TrEMBL record:
SUPFAM superfamilies: UBA-like. PANTHER family: DEFECTIVE IN CULLIN NEDDYLATION PROTEIN, RP42 RELATED. This is Defective in cullin neddylation protein. The keyword Signal does not apply. CDD domains: UBA_DCNL. The keyword Iron-sulfur does not apply. Signal peptide: none annotated. Keywords: Ubl conjugation pathway.
Length: 251
């Protein structure tokens, strides 16, 4: 490693610390990703041979640590304890990524199958390994395809059981969390618009299309097409932005 520049050496050390990989494996992954750490994590964790097979007894022990005493599930108290053990705030977006890996059906709860299946897919069978994966899961938010999957997953995960739409307050909280990652400059205006003009639950179509709008339409709306197939709520939002002088109407 003495032949590497300091920046590359630091990345090798960081990669080894997070993944527990050898220097040789760290170098291979970083070179293959052109020295991008997030890309190197993707390469490392997508190769089945580098994942240790999780010990099923340890998985059972982890599940039992967090399981509710009266129901065969992990509920809010268990998730709070898990967050404490992982040294992660329960409101941290990485917990949404954890739930996505576990394919959790509902916010604030994990079935035994979801919890153990998710840990198996991550190659985790101890708290130490779980903590090591946190930075990798944060890095997944920077991958556009994975972010879209996590964003679309969040709708079903956050809505009330049996409801087709997402309660407005919940949707606003989720948008503020998700778009803080994407740095969409119009997110606060969108949330204010919904509270002032809409004040109803959010359907899945609006949820999914808003990400496309945020991703493809310039914040100054210079490339907004009024004839495009946006949901009516997004068209109304554009009118609201122009009416309130937040953006100038393009000539």
């Amino acid at each position: 490693m003495h032949k590497l520049g300091r920046g590359h050496r630091d990345k090798v050390q960081q990669f080894m610390a997070i993944t527990g990989a050898s220097e040789k494996v760290a170098l291979q992954a970083l070179k293959a990703s052109d020295w991008h750490l997030e890309g190197a994590f993707d390469i490392f964790y997508s190769q089945p041979q580098v994942k240790a097979v999780p010990d099923s007894r340890h998985l059972e022990e982890l599940y039992n640590r967090y399981k509710d005493p009266y129901v065969d599930m992990i509920l809010a108290d268990g998730i709070s304890l898990l967050c404490n053990d992982l040294q992660v705030d329960p409101q941290d977006i990485v917990m949404l990524v954890v739930s996505w890996h576990m394919k959790a059906a509902t916010m604030c709860e994990f079935s035994k199958q979801e919890f153990i299946g998710g840990l198996q897919s991550l190659g985790v069978d101890s708290l130490e390994k779980f903590r090591e994966r946190i930075q990798f899961m944060r890095s997944e938010l920077k991958d556009e395809q994975k972010f879209r999957e996590i964003y679309n997953f969040a709708f079903g995960w956050a809505k009330e059981k049996g409801q087709k739409s997402l309660a407005l307050d919940t949707a606003i909280g989720m948008w503020q969390l998700l778009f803080a990652e994407k740095h969409w400059p119009l997110v606060d205006h969108w949330c204010q618009f919904l509270q002032a003009r809409h004040n109803k639950a959010i359907p899945r179509d609006t949820w999914s299309q808003l990400l496309e709008f945020a991703r493809t339409v310039d914040p100054a709306l210079s490339n907004y097409d009024a004839e495009g197939a946006w949901p009516y709520l997004i068209d109304e939002f554009v009118e609201y932005l122009i009416e309130n002088g937040i953006v100038q109407k393009s000539s």
